[in-house]
Amino acid sequence: MRGPRTYLVYCKTTTDEAALLRALDELKRAEEAYNQSAGMVSDCMFVTPPAVRVDGGVCRAATP
């Protein structure tokens, strides 16, 4: 099973979500191809989703 290594915070109201998801899918495919060719394996690290806040009309990951 593969999980996220990081989360990306963005505002749906100011982001072209379809374009972002296409770019992230392309990145995922490239990373999977690299990992396979380099024999990379998961470190089994569990990454939790960040809390999100709006600061000056901009969505940001809230730091604990």
How many helices in DSSP terms? 1
The gross shape turns out to be: flat
- In what range is the share of β-strand residues? 15-25%
For the sheet with most strands, the description reads: 2 strands, antiparallel
Report on this structure.
- 34% of the residues lie in helices and 16% in strands.
- It is an alpha+beta fold and 64 residues long.
- It has one domain (17-62).
- It has a two-stranded antiparallel sheet with strand order 1-2.
- The longest helix is centred in the middle third of the chain and has 22 residues, at 17-38.
- The radius of gyration is 15 Å and the shape is flat.
- The chain starts with 16 loop residues before the first helix and ends with a strand.
- The model has no long low-confidence stretch (mean pLDDT 86).
